[in-house]
């Protein structure tokens, strides 16, 4: 009979479904960047806009500070080449270079302040001048070409710059680290709010900021963060800084979606 046939098909379908093991939805599978949500970020969850920025500022301002000399050895760990433990990866060039070649001569790598230290006049003093979350190894010559330029798109190729571009007033890093650069800049803007004897650092839409405590362009940085999400190298670096050195995190690496929430 038709009714009997329908019930038989329904029971067969139910049996097939019962045999299928469906994936269990957990916090880890729903969002891979929530490992610290119940602890480190608990006071930021559920907030947006200025409230989120304020909460994150309070959280990440609790940090251990390094001396500028101490940055040398720290970078040899945070930026270690995963394929060669004797080398570091240079941020703009993408080159793997011997850790021992740190210094100020041609062919050496030095300490690049991604948030240019003249933008806020903090120099190399302990605090923003030594914050590992925006200090990266880079070739001395390429670092000099970047100088204190703001970030924007366009320009001509930087010699030995790994695909980076530059013009008279801006610098565009290679594609693989554009998001890294954006998240470092936004970290600095949240971390340094002018309440600890340093300038209130903020991104804006200009490329002629000079020594003002601003860096642009915000719209471009947001675009880069979306186009180049955190990769394994960037995530590992954040973890090493947190566990071994400063004991604070870059929230925009853990939660890239917070870029839009804050900015």
Automatic annotation (TrEMBL):
Segments passing through the bilayer: none
InterPro entries: Endonuclease-I (IPR007346), His-Me_finger_sf (IPR044925)
Annotated region described as Disordered, given as residue ranges: 151-171
Signal peptide range in chain numbering: 1-27
Annotated keywords: Endonuclease, Hydrolase, Nuclease, Signal
Cited Pfam families: Endonuclease_1
Keyword Nucleotide-binding found: no
Superkingdom: Bacteria
Protein known as: Endonuclease
